[in-house]
Amino acid sequence: MERLAALEAEVKADADAQRARKEVALQKVREQQANEQAAKAELRARQAELHTRKKRPTAEVEDDDRGSDLGGALQLARKANDVKNELAKKGEKSWIKSGIASMLLGTLGWLYAGSFREAIPASVAYLAFAALLSKLPFIMWPVMMVALPLSGIAGVVYALQYNKTGARQRLWGDKKKKELPPGK
Questions:
Q1: DSSP 174
Q2: Vertex 106, ends 103 and 101: CA angle to 5°?
Q3: Which residues are CB-neighbours of 169 under 8 A, at least 6 positions away?
Q4: Distance from the Cα of residue 142 to its chain's centroid
Q5: Cβ(146)–Cβ(89) below 8 Å
Q6: Cα–Cα dist 137/28, whole Å
Q7: Which whole-number Å values give the CA distances from 170 to 80, 117, 155, 162, in the listed order?
Q8: pLDDT of residue 132
Q9: What distance in Å separates the CA atoms of residue 35 and residue 27, rounded to the nearest whole number?
Q10: Is-contact 103 147, C-beta < 8 A?
């Protein structure tokens, strides 16, 4: 019995020793985790401090930028309003009408706002070309798919030039009349 009691006491002492070692190991792990968390918290605090230091000047600049953004937006709105007013003046040619007419009718649409010196010969050539190709419609459609949008663009440019100067303007060729040299 004494041996059994001694064995039990030895097993109990061994279990207590293991529990104590386990408790010491757990305490070390807890301390290590606490140190790691403290280090992380300190790092976050330093990063936040550095970030906020950089952020403050940036925030001030952003406030300035907001002011300039607002000024830029107002400037853009003024320019858009000027363009709208310029395009909507009475007695001027509508660039939308000119573009649509030139796209649907080809060079005949140029007669709306374009220079007669360019629009009339181009319209005659367009009608002659269309008459010749009307016998071969399979050739005419691919050509028109390219020519009509280009004609529409030219019509818009003619209308914008008309609105800018108040008169029909040529797009191609000499825009200035040839002047004679002095003394001739």
A1: -
A2: 45
A3: 115, 158, 161, 162, 175
A4: 33
A5: no
A6: 93
A7: 26, 8, 11, 10
A8: 81
A9: 12
A10: no
Q: Is the pTM of this model over 0.90?
A: no
Closest by CA to 58, choosing from 73, 66, 47, 46, is 66
Averages of pLDDT over runs of 10 residues in the chain (184 residues) are 92 95 95 94 87 55 56 80 68 80 85 85 87 77 81 86 80 63 60
Give the residue among 104, 119, 132 at the shortest CA–CA distance from 158.
119
Contact 98, 156 (CB under 8 A): yes
Phi and psi, residue 33, nearest 5°:
-65, -40
Look at the block and give the residue holding tokens 């550095």. Answer: 50
Greatest distance between any 2 Cα atoms in the chain: 148
For residue 172 the two structure tokens come to: 């191609």
| Token couple for 5 | 């009691």
Q: What is the pLDDT of residue 7?
A: 93
